[in-house]
Structures are given as structure tokens and as C-alpha cells.
Amino acid sequence: LPIRPAVEEKIDLGNWSLQTTQSHILRSQCKCNGGVQCNHCLYGETLKIPDLPEMTFDRNVLTLTHVSSGCKVQLNTLDALKLVDDKQDIIKVSYSQEWLAKRQDSSHIKNTPKPFDWTFSTAYSGTLLNSDTHELSASTTTQEPEQEKLLRRDKILHHTELVMFEDELADNGSSKLVVKCRVMPTFILVLLRHYLRVDKVMIRVQETRLFCEQNWDYFLRDVTLREASFNDLKHLQTSLVYEDEGPINQHLKVVKRVLDKVSIVECK
Q1: pLDDT beyond 80 at 229
Q2: 53-71 burial string, b = 16+ CB within 10 Å, else e?
Q3: Do residues 80 and 165 lie in contact, with contact meaning Cβ atoms separated by under 8 Å?
Q4: pLDDT (tens digit per residue) in 62-108
Q5: Distance, CA of 173 to chain centre
Q6: Could you give the 3-state DSSP secondary structure of residue 164?
Q7: pLDDT digits (tens, 9 = 90+) for 165-211
Q8: Cα separation, 249 vs 268, whole angstroms
Q9: How far are the Cα atoms of 17, 44, 48, 54, 102 from residue 113, in angstroms, in the given order?
Q10: Cα atoms found within 13 Å of the Cα of residue 23, Cβ hemisphere only
């Protein structure tokens, strides 16, 4: 069957340009052509984990570019999966053996029979890309976006959602990495969210928010990790516990929060 071409969108706002690419899941077989390496082989050679999420969207990418300097922050699936632990199960539960049993068809499992984090947990918060003349420099800050501005009902100039990867953990839960972005008349807001639920064990959510106003020469990066055990959530309705969107967040404990100001500076 023919593969539909990737959908690319681009919007400029002041000092910034936002570009997204959205396409199909990673091919299951090698499609190298004329010496050009395909993504199937690139992922296999680059990543050390023995298997990939059931749905891996290798070509889904969001790039936020500071126009005058050429510096970028990019969200992509390959870099996110590079941070998955390839040596041990992060969550020691009985489900790991069941998951492995259901994956014996996988060539990755057969060829590389070693433990790894089968939940595909990743602490990925974006890839910083410098230009020839400028570089991105992160420092801790107390500055946060103005809540009044975020809540104001201004016109939405552009919004999109990209799934980077998704896996149902052999019917034992869910691991999902999603990017959402919103371009407003005066600012850009990007959300990178990794949702992990291991049924009857725990829920963990890491959210990275990138925020910049149209005339800024920097952006704010807010990384928040929340977590709770199923025992902590037993007072909630079952439907809420198994909902992977925002409402569950308020019932999870904040484990870690890092707020950075990422500035553009000239190379020395």
C-alpha cells in the first residue's frame, strides 16, 4: 500500500517559528534505498533497548526556532527513546514477565534477551540545537508565564497534537508520549507529556512545558514529575484512575519540578 506523505505545518510569531511534521508509524521492515538509511535501521542501530513501543511515530517532530539566531528546541521520538533504561526494569512488578511472554514474537526480544525498562519511561524534555553563531544556555529561574495571559480567551492561531509513541504494556497499562502546542496572538505554548500507568501498581506523569512570548529572545522550560500508587488513589472512581488525560494530575504527588530559563547567547 502507498504511504501517505508527511503533513508539515509552519507558523511564525514575532521572534519565533513553530514547525510540526506528522506522519505514519515506523515501518516494520527495512526500506533502505540507494545507500540512504531508513528509520527502521536507524532506530535499530541507535537504540539499545531490545524492543520498541507498539506504535512508534518516528517522523512526528515539533521544532521551535528562534529566527534571527537559528537556535532550536526540538521534540522528536528517537531522542526520547534514547533515555529509556536499557539495562533494568525501572518498575519491579510481576507484570514484566507477562509482558515478556506476550512479546516472544518480536525479533528484538529474541535477538537481545536482556532486561530493560519495558514501560518505556523517559525523562526527555526536548533537544536543544545550537546554530553556528549562537547557543542555548539553560539556567534555573523563578520566572513563570503570566497565568492571566494563559487563561485569557484570545483567538487560537494554531494548535496541533502529535503522538510520539504509545504502548499498552501487553494489556497491563499504558505508556504514551504526546506533544501538544498552541499558538496565541502573543505567545507560544508547547506541552510534552509522558503518561505511564502500570495497572494496580502506579501512575506517573512527566510534563514539560515550553513557553515563549513573541518578542522574547529566550523561552521558559517547566518540567514537572508527578506520581502516585494505586493504593494512594483507591478513594477515586475507577474511571478517573484509568483516564490518561489531565484530571488525574491533581491527584498525583509532585515528585520533582525544574523551572529553567533557556537563553540565546552568542558563541564565544
Answers
A1: yes
A2: beebbbebbbbbbbeebeb
A3: yes
A4: 999 999 999 999 999 999 999 999 887 666 544 455 555 655 555 44
A5: 18
A6: strand
A7: 999 988 889 999 999 999 999 999 999 999 999 888 889 999 999 99
A8: 42
A9: 44, 15, 12, 18, 14
A10: 20
For the record, the C-alpha cell of 206 comes out as 512527566
Q: Give the span between the Cα atoms of 192 and 205, in whole angstroms.
A: 10
Point out the least confidently predicted range of 10-19, 136-145, 230-239. 230-239
Backbone angles phi, psi at 96, to 5 degrees: -60, -40
Decide: 258 and 223 in contact? Cβ < 8 Å.
Answer: yes
Q: Give the three cell numbers for residue 250.
A: 491533581
Percent residues over pLDDT 70 in the chain: 88
Number of helical H runs and strand E runs in the chain? 6, 13
Instruction: Using alpha carbons, select from 263, 262, 265 the residue that is nearest to residue 133.
Output: 265
Consecutive H or E run containing 238: helix 238-241
Locate 238 and state its grid cell.
475507577
Contact by Cβ (8 Å): 8, 21? yes
